[in-house]
Design brief:
The structure holds 2 protein chains of 2 kinds. Chain A has 4 domains: 11-232, Rossmann fold; 247-326, Beta Barrel (Elongation Factor Tu (Ef-tu), domain 3), CATH 2.40.30.10; 333-438, Elongation Factor Tu (Ef-tu), domain 3; 455-642, Rossmann fold. Chain A has 16 helices and 28 strands. In chain A, strands 2-3-1-4-5-6 form a 6-stranded mixed beta sheet, with helices on both faces. In chain A, strands 7-8-13-11-10-14 form a 6-stranded antiparallel β-barrel. Chain B folds into 2 domains: 3-180 and 252-260, Rossmann fold (3-Layer(aba) Sandwich); 197-249, no CATH class. Chain B has helices at 3-21, 33-45, 64-76, 98-116, 182-192, 227-234, 254-260, and strands at 25-28, 54-58, 81-85, 121-123, 140-143, 171-174, 206-207, 220-221. Chain B has a 6-stranded mixed beta sheet, with helices on both faces. The longest helix of chain B is centred in the N-terminal third of the chain and has 19 residues, at 3-21. Chain B is globular, with a radius of gyration of 18 Å. Classes of the chains: A alpha/beta, B alpha/beta.
């Protein structure tokens, strides 16, 4: 650390690092550098000068530049190298990201020139997101300005960790050391406040070439590296091969007899014979082969960055959007996540708005559940608000209609980030945090170790022999006011009268005891349904018909309840449209929800996912209560799984029934 | 993974995204070194198959060697080959300089082919390092109903999330080689043993570095008689690849104007 608080590396240190890296890289690697900074602080000039100093300009280009500059009545203007567009030249502003190649003795570079103008943020993002490292240009006279901060913040948000700063136009401040240190302190303080550290800070004059390729005699007080040696000191991509496997499926090819799952490995590695788990479907299979063309080159394993095609040992129905991982370290499954996002949409982002989310190859509809805070990227101050404007950054919570496989951005960046689409356009990008949210896969896993299931001496058939029927779950789902509780109680009474062992688990009743510690947050709702599903499965196991009456709006929750009572779960959709339910409003809840007193009320401000293939559907807006009851009772009487002497439901093995 | 492996994997990813999300799709084959690499990459991506038509928008003015190459490899690579013919030059804006007018004819031929096959995606082998204007391109680049490219309002493109949603009447140009350089193309062609039109190799001290229509493409001075020689030559030259293309030199902004109207 120097006195001014900046961390700088000596040229020797940088060279040592770079050489060590060059050896491990093997061939000449291409490094992508993004150059950002406030408008007119001299980014394009720096790039033009870098090209000149590395001898990367085509013959005649310097003369051409001189001619063009003279025509416009200026001294040589290096930025004209990049300004490929007539339009741009006339406005003297870089419109879009430009890429330009040059090489040093050590390696090849592509420079991405990002524009400084505020309204061109999306282009800056397009350029910067793929960079290995960044250079922030700050004007020595003007010091740190709005876009210097904004760009630095966005670089950090985009995941760029290697940052160098150049303090440009030192000629305008007479190469004054005190001014340099003042500007260095300013930018360092800002970067540190967002968790970034500049690797070097170089005083330069891009126009005159001071400290670009050669050390300048005009800065005798500066002993750090030149811009070129600083660039050579940057590292390439850190090894993602050692991370957990994430292979998002792009497509499934059936061009011949093979069924090939195609995709690019985003992290980790995969080998023939590995058992892979697909998320969110939760299916597993073994890798039979890693296919290739020409066919003689089939590899035994593949790692991060490679585009592969795999075949499995069994015909799984897996589609685009699934993520293959190893069983022991899978992505999280969730319908709810937090994100820090930058917003590029012309329309502002508001609570309740819906977007198409793209996360690797997954696509899903998401709703903005809440906006936690809006971040001012200049001051880093946060404020509350219910809408996020173009070019702003915000922390939000998003809810997806379907289960997504994803990771915390901090753990695995490639599976922890997404973009949002509105109409036909990308309107934002974000990075994911699952802090405080449950992994919905965890919910079905057994947390404690040393748990060994004990075999009952009685079998389901024993119990059926006593009761006259098998146990099972009648899972009523539907909107509030659709008639679930009413029908549950009626059906319970009717079945009891017919000699069935039957019991109703009702929402409000369960929340007084078993689930008294749960509220109405999304994770509590999920846990509420999980417990009810498990309790209902125990009733069913004990030979009783258990009727549950819960809204249970999410398919994933109902599917999990079904999985708890395999073969004995009957999803009964109590159907009625929102208008009908709202008219009935037996508990006055719709009125409260409309008044905004109940947040996230299903059907009003939260979605209801209707069953796709319910075992029975009763429509209470067209049927009378007795009609609906009759249909449900008839269903129970007719369905084979309840019948004592019929084919055995898939259950634990045990001694033969004594009946 | 070396540098070429990384380029290949990225291009394969792009081709697979295009195939998964856009239909109907076709790949443009100019018969040049870049589009040959592109077809090769498609065969890698789809494990030996090229699952969409490969289209040559023919000006009728290519070199004999190029037509021979086309006829041979369309068959050998089992391509679903389409030949589309450009309209006569008389139908093209006579106010354009001669070479640009010739290029505009190709643009019109392409526009008609896209309309005829109702294509939603067109895969083209342009690279960012070829020409400064192409450096600003996106990997998935939307085109208006006339094929026009609005370089002032391009969609954001980051984290390999490409534009696959677009309104009816428009289409997407897909550029799987955008991140390659001329040198990369030759290194990869050499490594993979991809066939090339022999005009690229030096004959009597001259060779073609870039192949267009016979009447508007000039050879450059070179003794590079093998791909290895070309690679050596490129590692030391600073002359631009399209130096032999007449249309690039007629006006300061000729190329940009061509691209804005739909030229590749």
């Amino acid at each position: 650390m120097k006195d001014d608080g900046t961390t700088t590396l000596t040229p020797d240190q940088l060279k040592g690092q770079a050489l060590a890296e060059a050896e491990t890289d093997g061939a000449r690697a291409l490094h992508r550098i993004v150059i950002v900074g406030h408008v007119d602080h001299g980014k394009s000039t720096l790039i033009g000068r870098l090209l000149y100093d590395t001898d990367s300009l085509p013959p005649g280009k310097v003369e051409e530049l001189e001619a063009v500059s003279a025509r416009r009545g200026m001294a040589i203007e290096w930025s004209f190298v990049l300004d490929a567009f007539q339009a741009e030249r006339d406005q003297a502003v870089t419109i879009d990201t430009t890429q330009i190649w040059f090489k040093t003795a050590l390696r090849d570079y592509v420079i991405i020139d990002a524009p400084g103008h505020r309204e061109f943020l999306k282009n800056m993002v397009s350029g910067a997101a793929s960079a290995d490292a960044a250079v922030v240009v700050v004007d020595a006279e003007e010091g740190v300005r709005e876009q210097s901060r904004r760009h630095a913040y966005l670089l950090h948000l985009l995941g760029i960790r290697q940052v160098a700063v150049v303090v440009n136009k030192m000629d305008l401040v007479d190469f004054d050391q005190a001014r340099f240190e003042q500007v260095s302190k300013e930018i360092t303080e800002y970067l540190e406040s967002i968790g970034a550290t500049p690797m070097v800070i170089v005083p330069i004059s891009a126009r005159d070439g001071d400290n670009i390729a050669k050390r300048s005699w005009r800065t005798p007080w500066y002993d750090g590296p030149t811009v070129l040696s600083a660039l050579d000191g940057f590292h390439g991509h850190p090894g993602v091969g050692a991370q957990p496997l994430r292979l998002p499926i792009q497509d499934v090819y059936k061009f011949d007899a093979r069924r090939i799952l195609a995709g690019r490995i985003e992290s980790g590695s995969i080998s023939v014979g590995d058992t892979v788990l697909f998320s969110p479907s939760n299916k597993t299979a073994r890798v039979r082969a890693i296919e290739a063309w020409p066919e003689d080159g089939k590899p035994e394993s593949a790692a991060a960055g490679e585009s592969v095609g795999i075949t499995l040992d069994e015909q799984l129905f897996v589609e685009r959007g699934e993520i293959a991982s190893h069983v022991e370290n899978p992505p999280k499954l969730t319908t709810l996540f937090h994100a820090r996002l930058f917003w590029l949409g012309h329309k502002s982002l508001t609570v309740g708005s819906r977007y198409k989310l793209k996360l690797l190859t997954q696509e899903a509809e998401v709703t903005v559940e809440s906006i936690e805070r809006i971040v001012d990227t200049q001051t880093l101050e946060t404020s509350a608000g219910d809408s996020v404007e173009r070019n702003a950054v915000a922390e939000v919570t998003l809810r997806s209609r379907q289960v997504l496989g994803l990771d915390d951005y901090g753990d695995l960046p490639k599976t922890g980030r997404f973009v949002l689409i509105e109409d036909y356009d990308t309107v934002g990008g974000g990075v994911i945090s699952m802090e405080g949210l449950p992994d919905q896969r965890q919910a079905v896993e057994v947390k404690s170790t040393n748990v060994i299931s004990v075999e009952h001496r009685l079998t389901a058939d024993n119990r059926a022999a006593r009761n006259g029927h098998h146990g099972g779950v009648l899972w009523f789902t539907g909107l509030s006011g659709a008639g679930k509780s009413t029908l549950a109680m009626e059906v319970e009474q009717r079945l009891f009268a017919k000699g069935y062992q039957v019991y109703v688990l009702d929402g409000d009743n369960v929340r007084r005891g078993l689930n008294a510690n749960l509220g109405f947050s999304p994770e509590d709702r999920t846990e509420n349904i999980r417990r009810v599903g498990e309790a209902a499965a125990l009733f069913a196991d004990s030979g009783i018909i258990c009727i549950t009456a819960f809204i249970s709006p999410y398919r994933v929750d109902r599917d999990r309840a079904r999985a708890s009572a395999p073969g004995r779960f009957h999803e009964i959709y109590i159907k009625a449209d929102v208008e009908t339910c709202e008219q009935r409003d037996p508990k006055g809840l719709y009125k409260k929800a409309r008044a905004g007193e109940i947040p996230q009320f299903t059907g009003v401000s939260a979605p209801y996912e209707a069953p796709e293939a319910a075992d029975l559907e009763v429509d209470t807006s067209t049927e009378t209560v007795p009609e609906s009851v009759e249909r449900i009772v008839r269903y129970v009487e007719n369905v084979s799984t309840f019948k004592r002497n019929d084919r055995k439901p898939p259950m634990r093995s045990g001694p033969p029934p004594c009946a | 993974m070396d540098h070429l492996d990384a380029l290949e994997a990225q291009s394969v990813y792009i081709l697979r995204e295009a195939y998964a999300r856009i239909e109907p799709l076709a790949m443009l084959w100019s018969l040049g070194k870049d589009s040959n690499v592109m077809i090769w990459l498609a065969r890698k991506a789809f494990l030996g198959h090229v699952p969409f038509p490969v289209m040559h928008v023919d000006t009728g003015k290519k070199f004999k060697e190029m037509y021979e190459f086309r006829d041979r490899y369309a068959e050998e690579w089992k391509l679903d080959f389409l030949r589309e013919v450009c309209p006569p030059i008389e139908e093209i804006d006579p106010s354009l300089p001669p070479a640009a007018r010739s290029a505009a004819r190709k643009t019109e031929g392409l526009r008609q082919a896209i309309a005829k096959h109702e294509l939603k995606g067109v895969i083209a082998g342009i690279r960012r390092d070829e020409q400064a204007t192409r450096a600003k391109e996106r990997v998935f680049s939307p085109r208006g109903e006339t094929g026009a490219w609005d370089f002032r309002d391009q969609p954001p493109e980051f984290w390999d999330q490409y534009k696959t949603d677009f309104p009816p009447g428009t289409h997407i140009r897909i550029h799987p080689l955008l991140h390659w350089t001329e040198l990369d193309i030759w290194l990869y062609t050499q490594r993979e043993g991809i066939p090339i039109v022999p005009l690229y190799l030096s004959k009597d001290g001259k060779r073609y570095r870039s192949l267009g229509d016979e009447d508007i493409t000039n050879p450059v001075d070179s003794d590079a008689a093998s791909i290895a020689d070309i690679i050596k030559e490129l590692q030391t030259t600073n002359t631009s690849e399209r130096a032999g293309r007449a249309m690039d030199h007629e006006r300061e902004d000729a190329f940009e104007r061509l691209r804005a109207t739909g030229y590749m």
